[in-house]
Design goal:
Keywords: Disulfide bond, Membrane, Signal, Transmembrane, Transmembrane helix. InterPro entries: Ig-like_dom (IPR007110), Ig-like_dom_sf (IPR036179), Ig-like_fold (IPR013783), Ig_Fc_receptor (IPR050488), Ig_sub (IPR003599), Ig_sub2 (IPR003598). It holds the Pfam family Ig_2. A hairpin with a 2-residue loop joins strand 23 and strand 24. This protein is 12% helix and 43% strand. The protein is built from one helix and 28 strands. The longest helix is centred in the C-terminal third of the chain and has 38 residues. It is globular and about 65 Å long. The chain is mainly beta. It has three domains: 105 residues, Immunoglobulin-like (Sandwich); 92 residues, Immunoglobulin-like (Sandwich); 82 residues, Immunoglobulin-like (Sandwich), CATH 2.60.40.10.
């Protein structure tokens, strides 16, 4: 078996890699320069206790053998780093592992929460950043993991100034390379509650760590390291939505408010972008269930009458 230098596996994600629980997502693996005769395998990047990482074959890898690994309803534990690989029988070739793609899935009913203090996704450089994985039993069975911008999967304590005790990790003095996606990992390797944490110098956006529920309010602030309460412009997905204000308030959030936000001051640099995730309200979920139930109950009487008529016809035919 040989490794092809020319044939390379390329991994992409559709429609996006920032997901809310229940969203559909497809991982697409292609071989550059060739389209036929390939079988694909799927892996996640895992890290051991000594922070060394390796690729682990997915238990249901075979269902993506054709090149598309489809998740019809994303769950929080689908959070992770994925790669693919292709092989061909005639002539025999194995490609190298593909580029890495991170999926992160936010949800509302999680067994654990990643707590960040202060509770926001962007932080200044040279500050202390405590993080902890907290569940209802206050157990120490969780570890804070992170996937950094240089594509390293590691313990939070792998930071130059990081230390981890049980389910708690503290970065004593943040630097820009601490930027990455952080989450809680169970002893069995399942990942929950990913948060994209950005470390920046002078200007940051104060935005919520948790997904915002439809119908709730949302407040965003532009923070400056040396000059508090300055007015700024706020942007969503690159478009100006509010100008020259110290904070931006959306009184009633809807799904259309989901997107990337950042702020900018005319005389200072702009903040990094933060993804704001919006989840359906509990009442809407109940309405959806009730609607489905009422539809079923409406159809049931007709089904019952049909069954009774068929039964009677059969008896009449037997009697004749």
């Amino acid at each position: 078996v040989s490794i092809s230098d020319e044939a390379k596996s390329l991994l992409s994600v559709s429609p996006q890699k920032w997901l809310t629980e229940g969203d559909p997502v497809t991982l697409i693996c292609e071989v550059k320069g060739s389209s036929t005769g390939w079988t694909f395998s799927w892996y996640t990047l895992t890290a051991s206790s000594d922070s060394s990482s390796h690729y682990q074959l997915l238990s249901d890898s075979s269902r993506g053998a054709g090149g598309n690994y489809i998740v019809s309803s994303a769950a929080p534990n689908h959070t992770g780093v994925y790669v693919c690989r292709a092989k061909r029988e005639k002539p025999v070739y194995n490609t190298w592992y593909s580029n890495k793609q991170l999926l992160w899935v936010t949800g509302v009913s999680l067994p654990v929460s990643l707590i960040i203090r202060p509770s926001r996704t962007q932080h200044f450089t040279s500050v202390s950043l405590p993080l902890s994985c907290e569940d209802q039993s206050n157990s120490d069975r969780w570890r804070v993991r992170r996937y950094t911008d240089n594509e390293q999967l590691e313990d939070c304590s792998s930071s130059l100034r990081g230390s981890q005790t049980g389910s708690k990790c503290t970065i004593s003095s943040t630097i820009t390379s601490d930027t990455g996606v952080y989450w809680c990992q169970s002893e069995s390797g399942e990942n929950y509650h990913p948060v994209n944490i950005t470390i920046h110098f002078d200007v940051i956006l104060e935005s919520p760590v948790h997904p915002v529920t439809e119908g709730d309010s949302l407040t965003l602030r532009c923070l400056y390291k040396h000059s508090p309460n300055l007015r700024a412009d706020f942007y969503k997905d690159g478009s100006l939505i509010q100008s020259q204000t110290t904070e931006m308030i959306i009184s009633t959030v809807s799904k259309s408010h989901e997107g990337f936000y950042y702020c900018k001051h005319p005389e200072r640099e702009e903040s990094p972008k933060s993804w704001i995730s919006v989840t359906a309200s509990h009442s809407e979920s109940q309405i959806s269930v009730l609607h489905t139930l009422s539809s079923v109950l409406t159809v049931c009487p007709y089904l019952l009458v049909t069954v009774v008529l068929i039964f009677k016809c059969c008896r009449m035919r037997d009697s004749t």
